[in-house]
Write a structure and sequence with these properties.
- With 327 residues, the chain is an alpha/beta fold.
- The chain folds into two domains: 2-97 and 294-312, NAD(P)-binding Rossmann-like Domain (Rossmann fold, 3-Layer(aba) Sandwich), CATH 3.40.50.720; 99-285, NAD(P)-binding Rossmann-like Domain (Rossmann fold, 3-Layer(aba) Sandwich).
- The chain contains twelve helices and twelve strands.
- It has helices at residues 18-27, 42-46, 59-64, 84-87, 97-116, 119-127, 133-138, 160-169, 197-203, 223-226, 246-254, 296-312; strands spanning 2-6, 32-36, 51-53, 70-72, 92-94, 150-154, 173-177, 190-192, 206-209, 234-237, 260-263, 283-285.
- A seven-stranded parallel sheet has the order 8-7-6-9-10-11-12, sandwiched between helices.
- α4 (84-87) links the parallel β4 (70-72) and β5.
- α5 (97-116) crosses α8 (160-169).
- The longest helix is centred in the first third of the chain and has 20 residues, at 97-116.
- The protein is elongated.
């Protein structure tokens, strides 16, 4: 049985380290493990692969994969994989939602704290060597408490669920939005369906986007939806940049329609130097680092090998993606 690993990216952390394949070979000697750091030999190697670890196989490569039964993506978002050829196939796709989700949830909470306590502004004043106690208090919105505030989480998946627990533990009221509102979620006080999104947005002091990319979520936060936010609300995006209409976001932020935004993801990455988002004072930008952790590949290894043992034993896999839905 053959396992093909092909993960190439300009950012080092997104590439599988050498120890990952070596450890698989030691622990699973029945597998032929092929680890590619480039895409040049993919067509050749995938032809007889049974399992692949990748996030970006093309349609023609899926067609060439005569034996492929399972693709595991080390990303949570799998829209880059969802070719018509893959959708039409019997290949099972799993993702890394439980590897990244809790870590991204931590980052979302850190952003909420930073916004609530006005930390970006405090750091700016620090650079000016200005003791800005009075300035930070007199500005709007003022520093605030998370306890008693409402966090609206749009998407109660791998990120939203652990985030809801964190928020609830801080004494926040948690409002959730999910496709199936009848399904409960620990830590969430009330759950709305997609048809009640505007209402949920209007209740949030902190609105967190934690959705997958689908046809229905692309530019979900358009001008009309941004107008639903309360004047003192903060918008936090740790999902994908295309969830927001960035032109509408820039206009709303410049008009101070709501308090501000924290963006870990943007429509184009890296964010171009010419983007106005860099210079808008009520925007906090982190460069898609929400999922970064020194434990990431160990977490990947534990999760993947749990599923690998299930696969080899003929048991149902965990974290299976619904290809027809795209998540």
């Amino acid at each position: 049985m053959k396992l093909l690993i092909v993960l190439h990216h300009r950012f080092e952390l997104w590439q599988a380290p050498e120890w990952f394949a070596a450890r698989l070979r030691r622990e699973f000697p029945q597998l032929q493990v092929v680890h590619l750091s480039e895409y040049e030999r993919v067509n050749q190697e995938i032809a007889d692969a049974d399992i692949a670890i990748s996030w970006s196989l093309r349609g023609e490569q899926i067609q060439a994969a005569g034996k492929l039964q399972w693709i595991h993506s080390t990303a949570t978002a799998i829209h880059a994989l969802m070719s018509p050829e893959l959708r039409a196939s019997n290949i099972v796709v799993t993702n890394a939602r439980d590897v990244h989700g809790p870590v991204v949830a931590e980052h979302a909470m850190a952003l909420a704290f930073a916004l609530a306590k006005r930390l970006p502004q405090a750091m700016q004043y620090q650079g000016e060597k200005h003791w800005a106690q009075a300035d930070l208090w007199s500005a709007r919105p003022r520093p605030r408490e998370l306890n008693g505030a409402t966090m609206t989480i749009v998407g109660l998946g791998g990120i939203g669920r652990p985030l809801a627990k964190m928020a609830a533990s801080l004494g926040m009221r948690v409002v959730g939005v999910r496709q199936h509102p009848e399904r409960s979620c620990e830590g969430v006080d009330v759950i709305y369906g997609p048809g009640e999104l505007d209402r949920a947005l209007g209740e949030g002091d902190f609105v967190v986007l934690a959705l997958p990319v689908t046809a229905g979520t692309h530019r979900l936060m358009n001008a009309a939806r941004l107008a639903c936010l309360k004047p003192d609300a903060y918008l936090i995006n740790v999902g994908r940049g295309v969830l927001i209409d960035e032109e509408a976001l820039v206009q709303a932020l410049r008009a101070h329609s709501f308090a501000g935004a924290a963006l870990d993801v943007t429509s184009e990455e890296p964010l171009p130097p010419a983007s106005p988002l860099w210079e808008i004072e009520n925007v906090l930008i982190t460069p898609h680092i929400a999922g970064l952790t020194d434990k990431m590949w160990e977490r990947h290894y534990v999760a993947f090998t749990e599923n690998l043992r299930r696969f080899l034993d003929g048991k149902p896999l965990l974290w299976v993606v619904q290809k027809e839905k795209g998540y």
